[in-house]
User: Which sequence fits this backbone?
């Protein structure tokens, strides 16, 4: 088979998506919609305590407001910046002002735990 035929054949399979819509369905399933809520003073204090313990590499379960719904996500912290009031869980950027619940599911096993960026 010559080089031109290989390239043409490869191109034929590149655009094929055997599971059309499957990626969209997975993205939809990643979000768990929860009922809206307002934090009490005690809940705000508890959230502040939890935030002080968060480090990059920790696995968190976070409930936050996203547009007009409250969403729950679980994942590893890839970036945490108090100055920008932002936490990144995997590739999702979350505004800390919209967080209503946070739980550390698993602490990072990295020896040199990094402090939050201030």
Assistant:
């Amino acid at each position: 088979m010559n080089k031109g035929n290989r390239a043409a054949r490869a191109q034929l399979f590149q655009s094929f998506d055997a599971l059309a819509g499957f990626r969209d369905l997975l993205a939809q399933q990643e979000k768990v919609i929860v009922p809206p809520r307002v934090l009490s003073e005690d809940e705000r204090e508890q959230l502040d305590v939890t935030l002080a313990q968060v480090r990059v590499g920790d696995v968190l379960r976070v409930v936050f407001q996203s547009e007009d719904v409250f969403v729950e996500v679980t994942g590893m912290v890839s970036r945490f910046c108090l100055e920008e009031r932002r936490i990144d869980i995997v590739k999702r950027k979350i505004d800390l002002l919209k967080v209503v619940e946070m739980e550390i599911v698993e602490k990072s096993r990295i020896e040199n735990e990094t402090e939050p960026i201030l």
Remarks:
- The chain has three helices and six strands.
